[in-house]
Amino acid sequence: MKVIVVGAGAAGMMAAITSAKCGNDVTLIEKTASVGNKIKITGKGRCNLTFDGDIEDFENNIVKNSKFMYSSFMNFTNKDVVDYFESLGVKTKVERGGRIFPQSDNAQDVVLALKNELKKYGVKIVYNTSLKDLIIKEGVLVGIKTDNGEYIADKFIICTGGKSYKVTGSSGECYDILEKYGHNIIDLKPGLVPLKSKDDICKKLQGLTLKNVSFKILDKDKVIYDSFGEMLFAHFGITGPIVLSGSSLLNRLEKLDDKFTKNEICGIIDTKPALSLETLDKRIIRDFDKYSNKEFKNSLGDLLPQKLIPVIVELSGIDPDKKVHQITKAERNRLVNSIKNIVININGLMPIDIAIITCGGIDVKQVNPKTMESKIIKNLFFAGEILDVDAYTGGYNLQIAFSSGVAAGKN
Q1: Is 373 in contact with 380 (CB distance < 8 Å)?
Q2: How much is the pLDDT for 219?
Q3: Which of 81, 100, 222, 271 is the 20 to 30 A CA-CA neighbour of 280?
């Protein structure tokens, strides 16, 4: 059987390899001059391959359409991903939060392993070629049109990704083509994207990374997201794993732009989530006893990162030059509250082009979850980010790509 796979990302390469292993004649068509472009930049170039957990962890970390992924995940689990790459010589390790990376911390090793597999199983790769249209006869896909001519085959797998990181080749053009032939495209939004804030605090703390902090997103007074981990301040606002994951819930609120305009969305950072108010107060009292004759601004070095201290001092409203032994209980309570409740007003999402993933895509109601075949067009299959399935950070999105890619390739 002749199979065409369009898009040489994680899903596309896995689909092509799987299909070729089944004895098919596979051609992989890639828009750019190289394969695995997005893999190379995932996990800051380290490639968070998958996660260490079970099916419940997987479903809980998929933001939308988790049930759709059940069959393909059970057919190719996170353990299968680890075993597969280990068999290719890519040794793995588990890091904080159950994130699984190559031991080498080099995403290029993952791409090279998959590229070698493509070669091993005889997959032909056509570079610098873009999908332009489908050739459909009586509801059956028989060929595709590209900017380098037509390709006729028995089956087709489209793995062209979303609209994020256009430099990697995923520009979203295929959505228009598929919509033309009856596929419903769920609104495309930036997912796992930094959050914008005009607050001076972000500029003052630019470049500061906070680890082991709690981060909540509030819509008015309602908590819509609550997580724990690492975040980073930037000149435009805030980013980092727990912020990025929060964006994938925030972007689904109705009338979001109006909420930003009305300043109804804010983030709250607790820099000491492991300590209760009472415990933190006792800790501060110990530090104040130790530095009783110092100015307040010079007494917090044991408790907070140096760059954060002036901001916390300002938020507390305590005179920075006041002697520590002169600070009142009421002032100390304000300090505790400042450390555990840093409020960041959020006024937007960064653009989709710098989002790690795209939320939205092919309506999964129109796709068979076991085979990844379209219910609208026969002989057409999908895998990866083009589908309306997305997850938080932590290796879950690559797992979606691998599992759906294997399902499409097998079928």
Answers
A1: yes
A2: 96
A3: 222
* Nearest to 370, CA basis, from 139, 160, 79, 70: 70
Rounded mean pLDDT of 54-75? 96
Cα(371)–Cα(383) distance, rounded to whole angstroms?
10
Residues whose CB falls within 8 Å of the CB of residue 129, separated by 6 or more in sequence, listed in order: 29, 30, 31, 146, 147, 148
Q: Could you write out the DSSP letters of every residue in 72-115?
A: HHHHS-HHHHHHHHHHTT--EEEEGGGEEEETT--HHHHHHHHH
Whole-model pTM: value is 0.91
Question: Which one of 3.10.310.20, 3.40.800.10, 1.10.3720.10, 1.10.8.50 gives the CATH number of domain 280-340?
Answer: 1.10.8.50
User: What's the pLDDT score for residue 165?
Assistant: 67
CA 147 to the chain's CA centroid: 31
Name the average pLDDT for the chain: 96
Beta-strand pair 2-6/155-158: parallel
So what's the pLDDT on residue 44? 87
Beta carbons of 349 and 247 less than 8 angstroms apart: yes
Domain 2-191+355-410 is classified in which CATH homologous superfamily?
A: FAD/NAD(P)-binding domain (3.50.50.60)
Q: Helix 78-87 to helix 396-410 angle, to the nearest 10 degrees?
A: 80
Q: How far is CA 407 from CA 56, 65, 70, 107, 155, in A?
A: 20, 17, 11, 24, 14
